[in-house]
Amino acid sequence: MTRINALLVLALVATAIYLVRVQYESRRLFSELDKAHSQARHLAMDVERLEVEKRAQASPGRVERLAREKLDMRQPTPAITTYMSYPNNTLAQTAKADKP
Amino acid sequence: MSRSIQYTSSPLLASRTPVWRSKFVVAMIALGFSGLGARAAYIQIFNNDFFQHQGVVRFARTIELPANRGRVLDRNGLILASSVPAASIWAIPEDVDMTPAQAQQLAKLLDMRVSDLGKKLADEDKTFVWVKRQVDTDTAKAISALELKGIHQSADYVRQYPEGESAAHIVGFTNVEDKGQEGVELFFNRALTGKSGLRHVIKDGRGRVVEDVGAVVPPLPGEDVQLSIDSKIQFFAYQKLKEAVVNNRAHAGSVVVLDANTGELLAMANYPSYNPQKRANLSGEQLRNRALTDTFEPGSVMKPFTIGIGLETGRVKPETVIDTAPGSVSITGVTIRDAHPHGALSVEQIIQVSSNVGTTKIAMQLQPSEMWTTFAAAGFGERPNIEFKGAVSGRLRPYKTWRPIEQATASYGYGLSASLFQMVRSYTVFSHDGQIIPATLMKTENPAVGAPVFSTETAAKIRKMLHMAAGPGGTGPKAQTIGYSVGGKSGTAYKQIGKGYGSDGNRKYRSWFVGMAPIDKPRIIVGVMLDEPSAGKYFGGEVAAPVFSELVQHSLRIMGVQPDISVRPQIFAASEDESF
């Protein structure tokens, strides 16, 4: 009888300690998860910021200026454009719809 | 012998302790325990709420989850406005203790004057002061690297506008609280604004979040708003307008580009404009979206409507000849003149050379009610239904108050007023087979459903006349483009100076051009207006038509429309004799 009791006390103490440990572990993991979440949010905001920056670098105004000044390009006119028609297949219908 | 307790059997250790003493100790211990029990009951049962609350206050926190403001996109999904993270710098003046060198450094980073910075931090009674709001993240990092005492940062958002001044009037801007103040930002403020979420958490001693309590309310990000604007066309329109305003030494100008099939606004620009990111010292002159808020008498732009009524009711035909000699006509004692006397003109030629006398003679055959009904159906005198706060209605007085001379002047566009946008939209009547279509700032795929004003035939006849007006012998041949047939009407008017229109040599003008292309099946309608051109040229056909021409050509090319008139190709295949 005493032996069983002693065993039960031991088991109780062991599970109690284990419970404390699990609780601690879960909080630690949760705080890590939370940190990761907030990092993800920061990264997402960074993506947005970079996207806006990229957009600002590629704005029509800047592209045009660079093309004109650095690459010596000019606006094309219909006189220097060859217009092609779609080949005579199903695409022809869509092409016709687009034509003025 | 008195009663005593024997602690041991050894007579040597026998002490004579009275019994009451041990009883007293037991009683004291019992009292101690019951005290603890009572305290426990007090904490756990009677005053439980108070202690629970105190506990929660110490470890539970409510975190607000900020929601992003939606983006404003152009028709191709390019960003016109978006929120990016930023930092706001604040200070507790009492705590601030900087050396002059540090102050200099900080002021330099913040792009402020040292004296201004000093002023902000001077009042030591204040416990909180914004030093600068919404500085970019790089600057914020540099500032935190300085490790200044009393200078703090908090996370914030700042709105970025990659298109800058070219789309400023359409997109508008937000204030530091992220609320829309102008343009689309204002009109769609509710949709763009997100709803921030909430989260209840438990934090440990080091401030780390260790547990969620209850359900998390996720943040609801603001919706993106996709506009019908094409940023390429928008930029080009702004650029060309700016050049024209500068070259003609004009006071201001506006352009509007409308899709003739869907009623989508492809571009709308005004000059002077402003950079929505640097809004210090802005004036109303720069802020105003003139294309929608400024009205003027549409002048010759109205003539096609008057002629249209004549054609529609069968009173005249395009070939009907009307005698405009001697270049003037008298209506109830008031003389209406043409710029140059013309003699006999066909109805087509009246539009082509823009004869006031010819138009008046046709108008005199019409009922005022017919004219009013048509003008009103074309959107004059009515606030346009467009996604913009502050669009004006212009003025179209009820026909019952028209005197004969007013009917005559209204026929060629005087005595009523409209914004450039209204004029451009009214021309959908001619481009869209006689139907006026609603204009929109939102991207749509479907062709617009219009309300009939004229018949398809009348619209086609007027288009032909507009084509003649923009051709050789017309008032706006400079509107012609390479590759695309155009049609349109120019207008020039004296501006009011005080009570009159000024005297010769001291006049102010307003010049404009409204037209469409390609003329047989128009895809776009373009309107250009210049306010007070003062570099010598002032006719609409001289100053506004060239801008129209460039815009039409560029826009149609971007839209992938094939030229409808033949172009002499300038592409030559270079060939060289083969050498042996």
Features:
heterodimer, A: 100 residues, mainly alpha, B: 580 residues, alpha+beta, Penicillin-binding protein 2a (Domain 2), Beta-lactamase, 5-stranded mixed β-sheet
* Name of the CATH architecture of the largest domain in chain B: 3-Layer(aba) Sandwich
The share of residues in helices of chain A is: over 70%
CATH superfamily of the largest domain in chain B: DD-peptidase/beta-lactamase superfamily
- CATH first level of the largest domain in chain B: which class? Alpha Beta
Q: Stretches of chain B where pLDDT falls below 50 for ≥5 residues? A: none
Which shape of chain B, going by the Cα principal axes?
elongated
Proportion of β residues of chain B?
15-25%
Largest sheet of chain A: none
What fraction strand of chain A?
under 5%
Report low-confidence residues of chain A grouped into runs of 5 or more.
95-100
Number of strands of chain B: 23
Number of helices of chain B: 21
Q: If interface size is counted as residues with C-beta under 8 Å from the partner's C-beta, which chains form the largest one?
A: A-B, 31 and 44 residues
The total of beta strands of chain A comes to 0
The helix-and-strand class of chain A reads: mainly alpha
Oligomeric state of shown chains: heterodimer
Mean pLDDT of chain B: 87
Summarize the structure.
The complex is a heterodimer of chains A (100) and B (580). Chain A has 100 residues and is mainly alpha-helical.
